[in-house]
Every structure is written in structure tokens, then in C-alpha cells.
Design a protein that fits this description.
Length: about 775
């Protein structure tokens, strides 16, 4: 009878210890195996504040509790268990574990956050640290170890409370999913789930309200037949105002659309006073969201094409395997067996009048035209900006039209594309209609009628202000139809050959709808002028480089894609980088585009005229001409090579009296053109004897830069150059030597009056 009472005494002792720590063991009995040891957990604190910013553990942190772990054998003596103990905390959203820092490692283990840790109890004791998170609640620390005597696992637990603020509502969010729905009968989703999240002052979910409701939802303003459905404490409820309750801080309701289109506001309200809306609301907090209700009927289309991975190089056969030494197909987008055709993804986004995606499955038609095209004029042969579409009719006129002769003329089956969106107030006239017949050079009829252009409620005629193109497809084709998905997107594939890269085209997307004013049928269209693109990256080359400056030169500029296919009909841009002087390309000063577009070989010729450029040096050209198209660019250096430096006069006669003369120095290039900006340095020296020992040239040094005429001037004063007819015939001579950094030189000689002049010109 003694053992049961002893066991009870140990249990009572364990309960007493739990007020400041935790302990564990399995006791024993008269018929039991030897008793296990025990694990005692002693914490500096078991209540922790909410760690709102999830600050990592640090010494002295108010969010950290130190827990001492002690393992004792059945005799109560501290001893090491078999292997390390294991510490685990749960739930992981409330608190985490950290070990003491190990100074032998490069990291601070104490500043880490863990769910489970091995804890070595060499002398039967060690510590672990519990750190709170930003979620209130109770976390349980569990420590287990294997008794060295019995080989059984001993476990001990300790609870930690992470407390937040007063658990009453302080904030709420409301959001619908989806944000837009359709009227009944439209064929789309007619309901949206309204989610309300309610948080207390510590940003924690409010407690569940039990049998009460703590959220009121209501449709604000005219409901248009829409209703809310929710589950209240008393069961399912419906209406324009409903009450429900949160579970883990979240309440939901269903919004069901009525027959009225437009934005519908839904408001959620909670009571900050007692988290209960069933007994009235004393201190309300509200949030509002909007659900858009629409009919899902096609109202607008927008064409687009992805920039990345939009273009596919088609293959002769999918069964061709590239050689092992080649890169795998797809690395650069080029397969081992290209068939000289490309396919481009074209997409259209379709919306209804409220901005919602149209009902999934709406059919969208696609089309393309590209000829006839007037290459020299860089425009479609039958195009203009003065088109006039008959609202609700089939007549189309253009005073500048060339429907009979432009590019050979148009005929039945061609397509008239009208860019109504480009002119304000005419978006409803954006059209792509088949030509039924050509009436005259300026008049045609389409096989179906134009829209009424009555998006404002009445038909409006702005007259002949519409841009248009009449053409047909000769170089490309496009998937005829696509259907919209859940976001209103429909896609098609534009196919074309590499021999037509750069050709302009017109692409359109079109679908059938209902006129909101008349209730009759209408077409919704989006049309854009584009081109048949090549495979990126494009390459632009320009040759020759360098070219001579201060003269007229021709440069051939060529544009190809990554398959080295020429890109035609491209207008290449240009710009000069000139420290001095001017440059023109095809008569255009400074920057612009080439006068002619690239031809069948992808090349265009640029006529380059430069003047007033300075001389080149070994480190820098006289200028740079840059060509560009999209992201491709090529540069041509412009050089001016100095050929001569001339000095005039070449000989100066000087007596004993001072004589002042101006030396003109002229720099010229290999074409004989004067060159500005050339640095010229000079030094004058005198050789004298006898009575001419006082001869001088002042100034004796010179530094100048040639101007726009290619010249610079050195004015000198010389004297003391004597000349006598009888012995000793003492005289003086002088020389001025001028040089440039490019290695050119010129010399001016000075001699006494009467001396022979063997330099030209002479002074």
C-alpha cells in the first residue's frame, strides 16, 4: 500500500511545480520495472507579449523566455540521457525555439528561429529559448529524452501564452471574388463571394462570437435586384441586409446579381463595443467594396501581341533531330530545319460596357490585309484620312480616294478598314468590312452596314474625317476565329514568309454584339497597322566605315533578323555626333530617317554630306554617324586626314629696321578641303653674325588653332637683318617652323633685303 501513496505524492509534487515550470516522468509501482528519470522545465516567464514585427531573438528581448531543462534519474540526481534531448514547439505560428549560441561557429544560433531542436544535456541540464510570433495564442513546448537506465522515452511539456490586445474588433477588410459578375441569363457567373476579415487591436483575428452574429453586410443604395446570402446564428438568411458571424476572424456572404447593370456597393459593419451586431451596434466600424454587374455582351476590343516568346520559327518536320554538337533547339528560337515561315501570336481582349470580360466562349474573328502598297510613298495605295462612313448604311466615300486606280484598284472581296478610334467621337465606326462594289474613284459600298455611331445615345455624323485603308491579303494569313476565355482573351496566329519581313499590314479583331440603344445587331472591331516582324535580335550593319569627312560619301545600311533574313520597307533612323561642323543624310540636317526604306535585300543607301569637321587623331575620329532601328544600331566613323600644312609667304625680306609680317597657315585634308580645329605650333629662330648680331624675330613662338576657313595667323616683327655689297657682307637669316600633332610641318624663311628668294610666295 505504500507505493500507490508514493506515486500520488510525486504526482501532486509535479502539479505544484507546474506553476513555474514543467516536469515529466512515469513513476513506478511494486510490479513495475525500474522507474524512469524525469525532465523538469523551468521558464523565466510563461506569458509573452505579441511580437508584432517578428523581431529575432536577442539578449534581454521582452519577447523571449529562457527555459532551463534538467534531466534527473529516478534518484533525483542530474544525469545525461542517452543522446541529445529533443525540444519541439507547437503551433509554429505562435512561438519558436532557439538554442544557446555556439561560439565555435560563424553564426549566432541564438538569433535563429526553429520548430525542433536537439539539445545536448551533458551534465543533465541545458537551456532553450522560446520567442513569440505575431499571432496570439498558446504554444506548447515539448522536451523528450531517453532514460539511460530503462531506455524509455521521458517527456515533459510547458505552455506559453502569447497575449495580444483586447479581443474586440479594431479593423476589417472586405473583398469580393470575383470582382465582377453578370446579370442572370448572360451565360456567365452571377454570384460573388464577399469575404470579411475582422481583426482586433493587435491585428489578430477576433474571437469567434459563439451563438451571436458579429458582422452585418448590406447593399448600399439601389440593389437593382441583387441580394446577399449568408449563414447567421439562426440559420441561412437572404436579403439586401444580412447578418453573419466570423470563424477565425473571417465571415463570408454570397452576392447574387440582379437585372440592373453597373457597380453595386456592399458594406460590412462590426461593433467595436462588444463584437456583437445581433444586439444592436453601439460603436460601428465599416468597410465597403464594389461588385460590378454587367451583361457580358461585347462592347470593346483591344488588339495586342506579347513581346516575349510571341514569334515562332516554323519547322519542316518535328521529327528532325539536330546534330549532337549543335545547341538544343529553342535556345535561340531557331530550329534545325526552319521552313522559311514565321508564326506570330496575336491576342484581343474583349470587354463589355462595364469593363468586365465578355462571357467566355464569345467568338472573335481575326483578319489581315497587306497589299497593294505604294513603296516610294510609304503608304497603302488606297488609303487616306478623309473617309466618310454612312452611319447605319453601306456607303463609304473619300474625296482623295483612288478606289479605281490606286495600286491597280479595288474590287469585290477586298476589305475596307476604317480606323474610327483614331478620331474622337467615332469609335463606333471602327470597322473591317468586305467591299461589295466600287462605284467610282471616290465611292464604294460594303457588303454589310456600318454601326450607327450612337454610343452617346444618338447617331452622330462627323463627316469625312476617318482614316482608312482598302486592301487585300497577299503575303500573310491569320487564324480566322478564336473564342474568349475567362478573362476575355481570344488569340490567333499570324503566319507569313521571311521574304516579307517588314511589310506593313493591317490586322483586326471583330465580334458580334447588340447595340445598347437600338437593341439591334452591331459589330465591335479593333484594327491596327503593324508589320510582319522578324526574329529578335535584329542586326543593323553600315558600310563602309570609316568614311571621309568634309565631302560627300555614300553608306549602305542593311537590316536583318536573327535568321539573317532581310527586313524590308524599314525606315532607318540616323543621328550625328560631331564635336564641330555639320552633317546631313539625304539632305536632312543632324538627325532623322533615311529618305528611302530598305529594299528586298534589307538595305538602303544613305548619302552623307559633312563639312567643317576637324581633323581626326589616333584616339578619336572627327565624328560618328549612328544608324538605328528599334533596338539595333550601327555606327560609322567619320575621319578627316590632314594632307598638307601650308605657310604663306614662304620667304620674308628683312632690313635693319623693324618689319611686321603676318604668316597665314592653312591646313587641308586629302581632298584639298580646308580643315578647322587643327592645332598649329611654331618656333622662330635667328642665325646672325657680325653687324647683324642684333637680329630678332618677335614673338619667337606661336600656338594657334585653324578656324572654319582652315587658317590661323602668326604676326611677327623682325629686324637687324643687314645686307652690304662690300665685305664683310655680314647678314642674318631666320626660320619659322610650324608643326601639327598629326606630324605635318611648314617653314617660313627670313633673309636680308636683296637676298635671293627661292621660296614661293615671297614677300
Amino acid at each position: 500500500m505504500r507505493f500507490p501513496f508514493k506515486t500520488l505524492g510525486l504526482l501532486l509534487a509535479s502539479l505544484v511545480l507546474s506553476s513555474c515550470g514543467g516536469g515529466g516522468g512515469d513513476g513506478g509501482g511494486a510490479a513495475s520495472p525500474p522507474a524512469n528519470g524525469t525532465i523538469t522545465l523551468t521558464a523565466t516567464r510563461t506569458s509573452l507579449p505579441l511580437n508584432s514585427n517578428n523581431v529575432l531573438p536577442y539578449p534581454g528581448s521582452p519577447f523571449v523566455a529562457e527555459v532551463a531543462i534538467a534531466f534527473r534519474n529516478s534518484s533525483g540526481t542530474l544525469t545525461a540521457p542517452n543522446g541529445p534531448a529533443t525540444a519541439t514547439i507547437s503551433p509554429v505560428t505562435v512561438a519558436s525555439l532557439s538554442p544557446p549560441d555556439d561560439p565555435s561557429t560563424d553564426i549566432n544560433e541564438f538569433a535563429t528561429r526553429n520548430v525542433t531542436l536537439p539539445i545536448v544535456l551533458n551534465n543533465g541540464s541545458n537551456s532553450v529559448f522560446v520567442t513569440s510570433y505575431d499571432v496570439a495564442g498558446t504554444a506548447t513546448l515539448t522536451v523528450s529524452a531517453v532514460d539511460p537506465l530503462t531506455s524509455r522515452t521521458v517527456t515533459s511539456t510547458l505552455n506559453f501564452t502569447v497575449a495580444g490586445a483586447t479581443p474586440l474588433p479594431a479593423a476589417l477588410d472586405i473583398a469580393p471574388s470575383p470582382t465582377s459578375v453578370y446579370v442572370p441569363g448572360a451565360g456567365g457567373n452571377t454570384s460573388s463571394i464577399i469575404t470579411v476579415r475582422v481583426r482586433d487591436g493587435a491585428n489578430q483575428p477576433v474571437p469567434d462570437p459563439g451563438s451571436a452574429d458579429n458582422v452585418r453586410l448590406e447593399i448600399v443604395g439601389a440593389a437593382g435586384g441583387a441580394i446577399l446570402s449568408a449563414t447567421s446564428s439562426g440559420g441561412p438568411v437572404t436579403g439586401t441586409t444580412v447578418q453573419t458571424r466570423t470563424v477565425n476572424g473571417i465571415a463570408t456572404a454570397s452576392f447574387q446579381a440582379g437585372s440592373t447593370q453597373g457597380p453595386i456597393q456592399v458594406r460590412a459593419t462590426v461593433d467595436r463595443a462588444d463584437n456583437n451586431t445581433s444586439n444592436g451596434i453601439g460603436d460601428p466600424i465599416s468597410a465597403t467594396t464594389t461588385v460590378v454587374v454587367s451583361d457580358g455582351k461585347l462592347f470593346s476590343l483591344t488588339l495586342t501581341s506579347p513581346i516575349i516568346n510571341a514569334l515562332r520559327v516554323n519547322r519542316v518536320s518535328d521529327g528532325v533531330v539536330p546534330p549532337e554538337d549543335l545547341d538544343p533547339p529553342g535556345d535561340d528560337g531557331i530550329p534545325p530545319d526552319p521552313d522559311a515561315t514565321y508564326s506570330l501570336t496575336i491576342s484581343a481582349l474583349a470587354n463589355d460596357r462595364q469593363g468586365n470580360p465578355v462571357v467566355p466562349g464569345t467568338v472573335i474573328r481575326f483578319g489581315v490585309i497587306d497589299e497593294p502598297y505604294n513603296v516610294p510613298a510609304d503608304r497603302f495605295s488606297m488609303s487616306g484620312i478623309d473617309g466618310d462612313a454612312q452611319e447605319g448604311g453601306s456607303l463609304f466615300t473619300s474625296v482623295s480616294g483612288q478606289f479605281v486606280t490606286g495600286g491597280g484598284g479595288a474590287g469585290p472581296g477586298d476589305v475596307l478598314v476604317v480606323f474610327g478610334k483614331d478620331v474622337q467621337g467615332n469609335s463606333d465606326l471602327e470597322s473591317a468590312l468586305t467591299v461589295a462594289n466600287i462605284n467610282s474613284q471616290t465611292s464604294l459600298n460594303t457588303s454589310s452596314n456600318f454601326n450607327l455611331n450612337n454610343t452617346t445615345g444618338s447617331s452622330v455624323n462627323y463627316g469625312p474625317v476617318l482614316p482608312y485603308v482598302v486592301a487585300r491579303a497577299q503575303h500573310g494569313n491569320i487564324t480566322a476565329t478564336g473564342v474568349t476565355n475567362d478573362i476575355g482573351r481570344a488569340s490567333a496566329t499570324l503566319n507569313y514568309t521571311i521574304s516579307t519581313l517588314g511589310y506593313l499590314n493591317v490586322i483586326w479583331a471583330q465580334g458580334e454584339s447588340v447595340d445598347s440603344v437600338t437593341g439591334g445587331a452591331k459589330r465591335v472591331t479593333d484594327a491596327e497597322i503593324g508589320s510582319y516582324p522578324g526574329l529578335a535580335p535584329a542586326t543593323l550593319t553600315a558600310a563602309p566605315s570609316p568614311i571621309l569627312g568634309n565631302t560627300t560619301q555614300q553608306v549602305i545600311v542593311c537590316l536583318t533578323d536573327a535568321m539573317l533574313a532581310p527586313i524590308q520597307r524599314a525606315r532607318i533612323g540616323f543621328s550625328f555626333q560631331l564635336p564641330q561642323g555639320t552633317g546631313r543624310v539625304d539632305g536632312v540636317l543632324g538627325s532623322g530617317v533615311l529618305a528611302s526604306s530598305t529594299g528586298a535585300n534589307g538595305c538602303a543607301t544613305a548619302t552623307v554630306v559633312t563639312s567643317g569637321l576637324g581633323a581626326s587623331t589616333d584616339s578619336a575620329p572627327s565624328g560618328v554617324l549612328r544608324f538605328f532601328f528599334g533596338g539595333a544600331a550601327a555606327s560609322v566613323d567619320i575621319i578627316v586626314n590632314l594632307a598638307t600644312l601650308q605657310a604663306s609667304p614662304g620667304f620674308v625680306q628683312v632690313g635693319n629696321a623693324p618689319v611686321t609680317r603676318t604668316i597665314t597657315l592653312t591646313a587641308r585634308d586629302t581632298a584639298g578641303n580646308p580643315v578647322s580645329g587643327v592645332q598649329v605650333n611654331g618656333t622662330c629662330t635667328v642665325t646672325a653674325s657680325g653687324s647683324s648680331s642684333g637680329a630678332s624675330i618677335v614673338p619667337s613662338t606661336f600656338s594657334g588653332v585653324t578656324g572654319t576657313s582652315g587658317t590661323t595667323h602668326h604676326t611677327i616683327t623682325a629686324q637687324g637683318f643687314a645686307h652690304t655689297a662690300t665685305p664683310p657682307n655680314t647678314l642674318a637669316t631666320g626660320v619659322c617652323v610650324y608643326t601639327t600633332p598629326q606630324g605635318l610641318s611648314a617653314t617660313v624663311r627670313l633673309g636680308p633685303v636683296g637676298a635671293a628668294c627661292d621660296f614661293s610666295p615671297c614677300d
